[in-house]
């Protein structure tokens, strides 16, 4: 029996943590990444070059390159140092004040290679081969997407909602996001991502920016259909804390209700939350009922890096391993 297959859905720093965690469990990890970023380097490149935003794709590749379990697999210290150096190079942002200022090297490399080979998936696969990376990075869609949100609290009448467009605008709004949608409304999916979901043994959604990195994955009709058909075990990892802009004041329970409101047919097996974010008692009982909306059982554990609102990848891997009675067999338990 070969390596079991894990697909991680998300974007940004949340997906980075998930990929690092899942690499403890298997070498066959596929990242399916949102492509709606319109800020910073990614925003500039999609506007100037008409490409899917490369930033979250670059971060996912770097996560697979430098996950402790991946680095530990390398033959010697020199190979490990070279891998880390190249990951740092991909993430490095040019300094200065000119046209290149703020662009990460990896964004330019991915955009240029995509132009050269004519396909962002082929470009990502080529980079994976060049850097000898286990796993795969795929875009959620092959066209750049926009996020549009209904936001309340921006008018004198709190009952009135305003439509806001753009991932950065949604993430930084002082109002309260009520609902999001993707533009185009029924975006084309990435066929390779659908195949990965179909063939997966485990699919993990979250954590991450709830309205811009998590919910979009259930708004692509073909991808949602693939998730519903897939026989993979499915795990939803909820954020450690509300995010300023997107989810201020949200309880863990509210995160689940909002996701369910966007895709009430979506089903998962397990909902995973950090124990510090949900005190024992009535609040946890409410959360169990919210998890049941997805047909899921609730699992609570110590998942955070001490003193930070960041998931500890090793703790997350261990908890998910425990859901399946240790059958995933952690590949590595310490960094090299």
From TrEMBL:
Coiled-coil region list: none
The protein's UniProt keywords, in alphabetical order, are: Cytoplasm
Coarsely, its chief localization is cytoplasm
Q: Where in the cell is it found?
A: Cytoplasm
The family database entries (InterPro entries) matched by this protein are listed as: CofD (IPR002882), CofD-like_dom_sf (IPR038136), Gluconeogen_factor (IPR010119)
PANTHER family reported in the protein's UniProt record: GLUCONEOGENESIS FACTOR-RELATED (PTHR30135:SF3), UNCHARACTERIZED PROTEIN YVCK-RELATED (PTHR30135)
| Function noted in UniProt | Required for morphogenesis under gluconeogenic growth conditions.
Question: What is the designated name of this protein?
Answer: Putative gluconeogenesis factor
Organism annotation: Gordonia pseudamarae
Q: What is the lineage of its organism?
A: Bacteria, Bacillati, Actinomycetota, Actinomycetes, Mycobacteriales
Encoded by which gene? Answer: yvcK
